[in-house]
């Protein structure tokens, strides 16, 4: 990425704990005012990377710059970042207002100004009038808001959030997601958000870095990650995906000619990948991009016959597993139940045909 | 009646009632005059020897408590925050002196602090002093040092427990919000470990105030404490009612001081926050 719009610059950063390599050589840039997520399964190094931004973990190798300033020699209490901790870390011996105003002491403001700022923050996180509540009288959602207010009152350049919604129940989590997004938009502070929940990352983020095994697999917008995953790992981590083994047979203006297992010859957009004849690759397709037909389509497009193996009814949509002769695994299809060309009575064991849009298929390395 | 209540009544309430009624009696030759009277309490209030010894006892054990907690806090802090493996082993090692007999520890200090003891002979041989330091043994200093050492285990354990309980992410949050190490200690660690400090203070102050072995063996004339006087009443002087009255006065004083102490720490906690 272009360096000039990099607000946080992570350059060749590595982190090892003894012999364990937690982060391997990560380089990426985060833009100013961006909602940026680090997404990955537990143990992928996302929290370690976040803690390195906060300064709680030293950087074994490489360099981190925030707003052009190298952070190597800046201790955590002097960094222009604030953090929302996973368990919120609300100070138990202080009340809500004292928690929110904790960091103001450093600014040496008059008491009246401090109280004004605290009130403003209470309004912002919709806890007006809760200032004198004790920490132990608060619900999970309220604690989360206080942790947020406590970090934001210092107007950090970057707000770091370590799985802040993980401890909340589903309904509250969805509500807080909306609120986080609203907050981030209204104050324009750069958010770096750690999560293992891909749906949450897709909903909230401007861009997402997908991490695994201490490495960054892909940094992209949610739509690009979903539509054009660069690797099989990313494709399988974000949403559901069918993978079909294939072999490259040729290359025709931007399209790769493939021999796909169980399906036969197919042309798939190459998307800038270099492929040579004989390579084994895989073809990926999202379940909702396959269209089911109850009789063989008459159009010129390619269709594949198969048999319905399993139907799962989910209300607004249904999931089907279709067995295609010659394929090792059943192909998953997801289809809206209001579709006109939907088979009226899809039963298990019934013969169906599948078609797809030309750009639905992605070729990936195996 | 629940078993706990039975134990409470037999173990605490009954002896306490006996003590109170005993304190209202008076000595009558080799026996007791059992007519209830406040004569003993009047003597404790008026004769200066009692108030002098009471005040001295509180002074000595107050100083001993202060130094014990002050010395044990860093040790407990170190184990709680900087030792990551075998924490229990460290705690056991720190309380190891406590495994030997109390009397043995007191005698050990005599060997160290004595006129020809370890400290004096070492300082003499190195030429730091010309004559042995006499204030080391048979003085209040000796009593304070010995008490502080002997009761250290009672301070380390509650301090360690309260420090260990502090969620490490609270410390990180304080750092994140701009506190350096010192400020963070004063605003987070100290207030959150205050319950441990308070119980450590009580656990040391209460028993040391009434201690009589250490002052008897190491105190000399300046180091005599109220415990020695109580022991005399029940022993050679054979004035049990007076001993009982003294015990109750001591108990009331300790209770009052404890309340004052609690009040002060609560105020201090609010100030720290």
SS elements, strand count of chain A: 20
Number of discrete domains of chain B? 2
Please estimate the helix content of chain A: 10-25%
Molecular shape of chain A? elongated
Q: In this structure, how is the largest beta sheet of chain B organized?
A: 2 strands, antiparallel
CATH architecture of the largest domain in chain A: 3-Layer(aba) Sandwich
Please outline the major beta sheet of chain A.
6 strands, mixed
Which CATH C-level class of the largest domain in chain A is it?
Alpha Beta
Count of discrete structural domains of chain A: 2
- Per the principal axes of the C-alpha atoms, what is the gross shape of chain B? globular
Report the sheet-strand fraction of chain A: 25-35%
Q: For this structure, what is the CATH class of the largest domain in chain B?
A: Mainly Alpha
| Beta-strand content of chain B | under 5%
How does this structure look, described?
The complex is a heterodimer of chains A (366) and B (273). Chain A is α+β, with helices and mostly antiparallel strands and 366 residues long. Chain A contains eight helices and 20 strands. Chain A has a six-stranded mixed β-sheet with strand order 6-7-8-3-9-10, sandwiched between helices. In chain A, strands 13-12-11-14-20 form a five-stranded antiparallel β-sheet, with no helix packed on it. In chain A, strands 15-19-16-17-18 form a five-stranded antiparallel β-sheet, with no helix packed on it. In chain A, strand 7 (158-162), helix 5 (170-187) and strand 8 form a beta-alpha-beta unit. The model of chain A has no long low-confidence stretch (mean pLDDT 88). By secondary structure, chain B is mostly helical. Chain B has two domains: 1-37, no CATH class; 52-272, Orthogonal Bundle (MetI-like fold), CATH 1.10.3720. Chain B is 74% helix and 2% strand. In chain B, a hairpin with a 2-residue loop joins strand 1 (26-28) and strand 2. In chain B, helix 3 (48-82) packs antiparallel against helix 4 (87-94) and helix 3 (48-82) packs across helix 8. The longest helix of chain B has 35 residues, at 48-82. Classes of the chains: A alpha+beta (366), B mainly alpha (273). The interface between A and B is medium-sized, with 25 and 20 residues.
